[in-house]
Amino acid sequence: TCHQRHQFNPAVARHSEQCKACHWGKDHRDWEAYDISIHGVVYQVNKWNPTEFDFSKTLSDADYVGPTCQYCHMRGGHHNVQRLSTVYTSMGMSNADRGAPLWKEKRDTWASVCDDCHSPRFARENLQAMDEACKDAGLQYTETFKVAQNLMLAGMDEPMPKDLAPDWSGQHIWSLKIGAYHDGPE
């Protein structure tokens, strides 16, 4: 849990490892994406240095050398976790910017998180680049499924072979999105 069993210490909950207990693994690679991103590397290298990460301070008073999971996702130190909610879905772009006020509100909130350390231009351009990477991956993913479907319709592929492994493809596209929005190298 966020505060560890029998220890309800906010300073403990501010360490990114606290998120790892639930947010890692094949089905949602949040921890892995953060850990190998530049932000995660800065955290791993400096987390034991109290001048770089003073976890006794509230998140709103923190001046970390790099962001923790909590710094970005629990802005202001509250329990209302900030989710991206503006990414493209696997097979389309249902959450893309189509002028919806909610999309703009969420994007502005995320840009303001990035603005704590980066310029507003850097934040907006990088968020847009991440959107485009996810959009492109989603379109390529859709095309791949069309090829497979056409092969089956043409009788060139068995629709449900007995030795077929579980289809983890949906998890792969989700992992890609998580990696993109954590600005990781994957």
Automatic annotation (TrEMBL):
<dbReference type="Pfam" id="PF13447">
    <property type="entry name" value="Multi-haem_cyto"/>
</dbReference>
<protein>
    <submittedName>
        <fullName>Hydrazine oxidoreductase</fullName>
    </submittedName>
</protein>
<dbReference type="InterPro" id="IPR036280">
    <property type="entry name" value="Multihaem_cyt_sf"/>
</dbReference>
